[in-house]
């Protein structure tokens, strides 16, 4: 049985769906120790057996931010400032780790957040780990790269 969760930024310009293979109460909650996630005190979820959809309803409000090794991009709403996800795109495929607090049912993620520190990792290992552990994601209404 799958568990479908809805989310969005605050103003609704960017929507989010996450279909989990198990209840949110059983999902591992991550506390990424990267400098961006720490400034947001973000709790994140990624499950390779889940499916996510990121839906851009107003493409002018999509903000992407890269830092560090630039292996991924942060997805933010330009208008309301909500941080939705970390996104990696490679050869037409996309993977995300989702900011739990952008989901409507954020309170159901009750497991304690586990600190994750990948700062010592080489770029190649990082890409392989993400493909194995992040959530396959469909990008809907996504503008071309460069914005
Ligand atoms: Zn917004």
Q: How is this structure best described in words?
A:
With 147 residues, this protein is mostly beta strands. The longest helix has 11 residues, at 123-133. Helices cover 12% and strands 39% of the residues. Strands 1, 2, 4, 5, 6, 7, 8, 9 and 11 form a 9-stranded mixed β-sheet that branches. It contains 2 helices and 11 strands. The chain has a single domain, classed as Metal Binding Protein, Guanine Nucleotide Exchange Factor, Chain A. It starts with a strand and ends in a 7-residue tail after the last strand. Zinc ion binds next to loops.
What is this structure's SSE topology?
Elements: E1 3-8, E2 14-20, E3 30-32, H1 35-40, E4 44-45, E5 51-56, E6 62-65, E7 73-77, E8 83-90, E9 93-99, E10 114-116, H2 123-133, E11 135-140
Parallel strand pairs: 3-10, 5-11
Antiparallel strand pairs: 1-2, 2-5, 4-9, 6-7, 7-8, 8-9, 9-11
Bound molecules: zinc ion.
Zinc ion is lined by residues 9-11, 13, 61, 77, 79-80, 82.
What's the level 1 CATH class? Mainly Beta
What is the helix fraction of residues, given as a range? Answer: 10-25%
CATH topology: Metal Binding Protein, Guanine Nucleotide Exchange Factor, Chain A
Q: Distance between the terminal alpha carbons, to the nearest Å? A: 38 Å
Query: What structural category arises from helix and sheet content?
Result: mainly beta
Largest sheet: 9 strands, mixed
Strand content: 35-45%
The domain tally reads 1
Uncertain spans: none
Bound molecules: zinc ion
Q: Which descriptor suits the 3D outline?
A: globular
- What is the N-to-C succession of helices and strands? EEEHEEEEEEEHE
How large, in whole angstroms, is the Cα Rg? 14 Å
Question: Average pLDDT, to the nearest integer?
Answer: 91
Q: Give a count of the beta strands, DSSP E runs of length 2 or more.
A: 11
Q: If helices are DSSP runs of H or I spanning 4 or more residues, what is the number of helices?
A: 2
**How does CATH name the architecture?**
Beta Complex
């Amino acid at each position: 049985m799958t568990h479908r969760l809805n989310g969005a930024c605050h103003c609704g310009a960017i929507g989010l769906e996450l279909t989990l293979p198990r209840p949110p109460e059983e999902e591992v909650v991550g506390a990424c120790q990267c400098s961006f996630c720490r400034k947001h005190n973000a709790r994140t979820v990624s499950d390779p057996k889940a499916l996510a959809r990121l839906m851009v309803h107003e493409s002018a409000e999509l903000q992407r931010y890269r830092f560090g090794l630039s292996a991924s991009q942060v997805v933010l709403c330009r208008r309301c400032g909500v941080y939705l996800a970390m996104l990696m795109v490679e050869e037409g495929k996309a993977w995300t780790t989702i900011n739990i607090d952008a989901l409507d049912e954020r309170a159901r993620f009750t497991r304690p957040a586990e600190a994750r520190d990948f700062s010592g990792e080489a770029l190649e290992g990082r890409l392989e780990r993400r493909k194995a552990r992040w959530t396959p994601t469909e990008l809907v209404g996504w503008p071309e790269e460069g914005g």
